[in-house]
Amino acid sequence: MPLPLILGVGAAIAGITGVGSGVHGAVKMKEAKDTMKSAEQRHQENQLKLEKKYEITSQYMEDLGKQELGILSSFNEFSELFEKIKNRPQFKEYEKDDIRIPEYDKEELKEISSGASAALGSAVAGVAGGFAASGAVTLSVGGSLGGLVAGGMAVQNATLAAIGGGAIASGSVALGTAVLSAATLGVGLLVGGVAFSLTGSSLSDKADEAWDQMKCAEKEINGICSYLNELSSTARKYNSVLERVNIVYKRYLLKLKNLVVIQGKTNWDDFSDSEKQETKNLALLVGLLYEMCKTPLVLKSSDEKGMNKVNDMEIKRTINNAEMFLEERQLY
Fold first, then answer.
1. Contacts (Cβ under 8 Å, ≥6 apart) of 22
2. What's the per-residue H, E or C state across 103-125?
3. Whole-structure pTM value
4. Which domain holds residue 224?
5. Which of 187, 242, 250, 287 is the most exposed place for a label (fewest CB within 10 A)?
6. Per residue in 248-281, pLDDT tens?
7. Residue 16 belongs to some domain of the structure
């Protein structure tokens, strides 16, 4: 074969090889771009899911916390009415089956009521949700209320603090500095089959890395969402039962106010048997509500980096005790 023809064939073969490499590189580039785009889209969807769960849980925690603080703040009115009754008996601790209600403590209730009123009046977001999560019992300005507002759950946000361990941060971070956005994948490509193929390979590695990071973040996010589902469900159920008890308590508190303030009955001996029973029930309802408000929704993890746990067993026990007490006393 003449030399020019051989050279021509060789050039044609080389050209075809270069085109083949270029096509291969282009395919790899498209695959990398598709992978990156899918990773970004899926991560954004995961983040949106997390944000929605977080917002819902925050609201349930705030609702529960506000109701608890409202109940505790009302104890001052109860104490003032109760202390006006002369010759009244000391209502000792009530205990039956698994139900235990502590005896009336005037000073403790007044302190709690004052602290709860201050917490309700605070303009800092998250105070109520933080209270529901922690079940704080010594609410006094400069005391645990100060910690709640200035350095605790309120500043961080109640729900974030309730999760614990900074897990939400690792679950909602961006995919990382090593991951390129889909828009940057086609920038700065080298001309030529071989160079193009190598670039495609490098970007494929980065796309795979992006996908792996997205999956890792997705696992974190799913774990946090599962926790938030449990926390919001528990908060909603607990708030419902607490509201039932609170309605009964308010009704009996109004009756006592009518007796002491309107009718002017301030001597226990002047109370009828039914009025005495109602007053005793009211004192027990205060103790029951106090115990319910003291119960934390969240158990803090012993590991600083670990996720907290929902206090599910204790919440269920407290709900059961409240329902049994209302039924046993026929307080509907």
1. 192, 193, 196, 197
2. CCCHHHHHHHHHHHHHHHCCCCC
3. 0.76
4. 21-328
5. 187
6. 999 999 999 999 999 999 999 999 999 999 998 8
7. no
